[in-house]
Amino acid sequence: xxxxxxxxxHTDIALLDDIARRNxxxxxxxxxxxxxxxxxxxxxxxxxxxxxxxxxxxxFVPVDHPRLLAAIMSSDVDxxxxxxxxxxxxxxxxxxxxxxALVS
Length: 104
Prior knowledge:
Elements: E1 2-5, H1 10-22, H2 32-35, E2 46-48, E3 50-53, E4 59-62, H3 66-74, E5 81-84, H4 98-103
């Protein structure tokens, strides 16, 4: 299993790792390249669709993953590409007031 996230963020990877552990899913920090029998892929089980460009004016540009896709295509191991969106904020629970949100 390879988790696919839209934009790079360390907090999203940390949350994904926590959620995977709680739900007994494969960890995003395992070495997917070793499972595929390849040493030329990064030692992780996630990738980003975009990368951050610029320092002051930040923008995201699409990224190609030729080594990862070649490893998946040439391997006999089935790899599921799982799209992941992590949304943080008050909208999922939508509490009525700040006091109610703090108490719950």
